[in-house]
Amino acid sequence: MNDYDVPAGTDVLRVFCGPDGRHGNALGVVRDGRHYPDDLSRQALARKLGFSETVFVDDPERGVVDIRTPELRLPFAGHPLVGTAWLLDLEVLELPVGDVTARCDGEFTWITARPEWAPPRALERYASVAEVEALTGPPPGEGWLYVWAWEDEAAGRVRARAFPRRGDGIDEDEATGAAAMLLSAELGRALNITQGRGSQILTAPAPDGTMEVGGRVLLEYAS
Questions:
Q1: Can you give the pTM of this predicted structure?
Q2: How far apart are CA 166 and CA 16, in angstroms?
Q3: 159-204 pLDDT per residue, tens
Q4: Which residues 6+ apart lie within 8 Å of 180 measured at CB?
Q5: N or C, which end of the chain is more exposed by having fewer CB within 10 Å?
Q6: Number of neighbours of residue 98 by Cβ within 10 angstroms
Q7: Which residues lie closer than 8 Å to 47 by C-beta, 6 or more apart?
Q8: For residue range 66-122, what is the model confidence (pLDDT) as tens digits?
Q9: Under a CB-based contact definition with an 8 Å cutoff, are residues 214 and 16 in contact?
Q10: Which helix (H) or strand (E) holds 44?
């Protein structure tokens, strides 16, 4: 377990872990958002922690949460919601875009949301898994980029990597639920995605246009 430098009341999770319990995207969860009452204090903590996202819980009973990157507030994000739902055992999370439902199914925690709630991402298909894995950093350009290739198209298995390219110190995002939703919606099918160093994200489209996104969550550090 890493010795994280986090203030009291902040837990660190790993979301979308691989089958062996490794990898996953680190997430900071501030259990009582009242300790950071304004925008400046929340962004300052998110920058200090340096995770791709940090969640401030404003009402644990209703599931009201505030999601921050090191530089800005997000109306929706996948791995922060999966992680927070798991940590607080929530069935509903209230966001500016709408309510997100959550459920646990064995080792996986799932959220149900609408793909259009996800911030825009460029989805770029590569010809092979080897090309995706050969990248040593973000490809040239600006704006959020999700690169992917079929590992086994018949089985819906995808290899992917994510590059925010927003200049906030996060060169690569280890596991990205929102981008997985968008890719699953574009392809119109359920996916089993291996992202980053070995994180796993599962998706499942529903007939009403919503999308389930699920994965494993582990508590890395409790303060």
A1: 0.96
A2: 22
A3: 999 999 988 888 999 999 999 999 999 999 999 999 999 999 999 9
A4: 78, 160, 191, 193, 195, 201, 203, 213
A5: N
A6: 12
A7: 70, 71
A8: 999 999 999 999 999 999 999 999 999 999 999 999 999 999 999 999 999 998 999
A9: no
A10: helix 39-49
